[in-house]
């Protein structure tokens, strides 16, 4: 009987068709079937009978054995021994022989399907033991959903070749033991010496420390020179001390309540110890230098994900010439947070996008099986907390946290995979939380059954020591000495900490890329900054920027846009887009980097920017700014439809490179609402909490134009509410030139501050919202713009306003020829230019001062200015829309009536 006939008898033509395809092209069938057809030798003899003499039923069982192998690869992770403290949930069908149509009677039968896993013809007993050891022990692997045969084969081959995991040499085991000893004893020491103090202990997940140590060592051997770590508070102190190298003495001083050295100029307020960041340089076992950074993070858990990714991308662009293999992000999650926080999804969706990719992230989930007090069954609908990984087809390794060697093996494989394929990998470290949410919390209130099991469970160090002693790798005395010596070190550092008066900051901020910069001082605010450029340079760049190549065919409307911009040079009237683009062009010419991202920023929400244009007859794009001198440092990316993660990313990017004008633009100003956590926890407070400056620019389109409640207001009041101690800049410019100088000022100061700009919509094309060449080449940024159309002695009322409403007021002033009302524009809302306001008060000594805004009275700048100027000589009153719970009316007729009422009242004296 030939092979084809034999196989076709087995399964109604299905295998026949597979075999026919295999004969024509072996690569046209799955690798497993290739092996099956190649290895099925009818001439060989096993156990006294030849394959040629076997029955069709045996062939069908061969297929069933193959199905069993594939079943373990696909679903073996559901039946692993990965939960250290309780039994796993049951899944059906299971992995019993009957599931695959086999039975105990088949266990000693030889099946050629063994070739699929590299055993050759083998007994079913041996085949099953092989795949059990590979897929159902301390590591459960999920990767078969990856739509890339090479990646599947890489992981499959490695898992099956190392089914018992590599036999680590004695020195490696001793290093693992040393790091695990440090992790466990450090937590125990803190718990004993600082009883009842919050530390968000790692107890139950201490194997994270040898795992992180290993991934750093392994990564270094694979060419990684730098790691950026983002994590929440649980286990942070352990990572800071035992991975990052933050001195134990400093950490103990923080527990003792010692404060960092006071600096009245910086308004440093500090943060709790388990939110702080750190950076350090270490040397690998191979003698290679590795830089480590741990980003500071608030209690908003996963917010740091985007920040850390942005830090990594910034360094890839700035430091590593685009080579992502030299730096890697590590994100450490909690199981409840990674499953439930939307920013995790947003950040993961960025991982393969050109503007945001970082070459793959190592995700480690410290799986405590409980979130605060919530059981995992109440915390997610997915099977695993890591099912988010499937969005980007990233492999997941579920590992028993008590099997520290399995964890080290899995994380080493993860970093290899990351380096090879430049994609994310997830490690689900299954452990437990020995105490409650914090050390003063009683977990039995909500999880009595679980905590009865945890109380009886030995710690990971004891388990590993026992394993090594049984192996003969170390003796009991070695382990005791290791613990004793480390406790002595900790006690010595604690004794030293008790004598400390103030903690000195071991993390110099203004070093590396920040060298030459400094913290700002209160006296800096209001100092003029030279941002003008020469006429020659401005005109040269303007012409070059707006001259499209003749050999490319652009849409007629695009051609006209650029022709109109060239005409602005002749008419000496530059609009908003020209002012903005010229700011970028001049900064690039000065060798600064410019990075812009946000939804549809290349064109601009209102089709004003057109920084990237598409050819008419293809998808080819052309970026004029990239053709200028320094244009290789210009990047503008249309982002995914995310605000939270993207803004966090750009904050991280700007934090690493202060010599980049890093901009995030919201599609509409109120879209920033979805990223409010980043504004609150990082942008407005990062310098106060962590002594970390940042020069990120946020463009938030704003203006009441009768388009309804949404997309009218960027909520200026929110950013002003966050303003204090010169922490951020809030501006609402009215001219292209002032905007030009505002953007350039960001990089021409020797300090950095976040900048929030309420950018215009209708003013983008307003005939009066233009600037002349002289405005760009002879002036600098003006915090307040006085009225040039009036004389002081004739003025009875001074209208203070900001933004678009100025042009409505100007139209009324010019139409009615009113010289008794001065229109003064407040271009920088914060920091407030008090000196300039005082000068105005003196100039218009006999006039009353009124604040006029188009926003509702409980919104806009008025609530802030009412408070800040209360009791001042200005004695301000307000003209605004009535208070409202909604930013704007949805009816155009009502909008126009309200606007007219505001304008008319402004001139009623």
From TrEMBL:
Its EC number is 1.2.4.2. It holds the Pfam family Transket_pyr. Its cofactor is thiamine diphosphate. InterPro entries: 2-oxogl_dehyd_N, 2oxoglutarate_DH_E1, DH_E1, KGD_C_sf, ODO-1/KGD_C, THDP-binding, Transketolase-like_Pyr-bd. GO terms for cellular component: cytosol; oxoglutarate dehydrogenase complex. One of its GO terms (molecular function) is thiamine pyrophosphate binding. Residues 574-766 form the Transketolase-like pyrimidine-binding domain. Keywords: Oxidoreductase, Thiamine pyrophosphate. GO terms for biological process: tricarboxylic acid cycle. Belongs to the alpha-ketoglutarate dehydrogenase family. This is oxoglutarate dehydrogenase (succinyl-transferring). The lineage of its organism: Bacteria, Pseudomonadati, Bacteroidota, Sphingobacteriia, Sphingobacteriales.
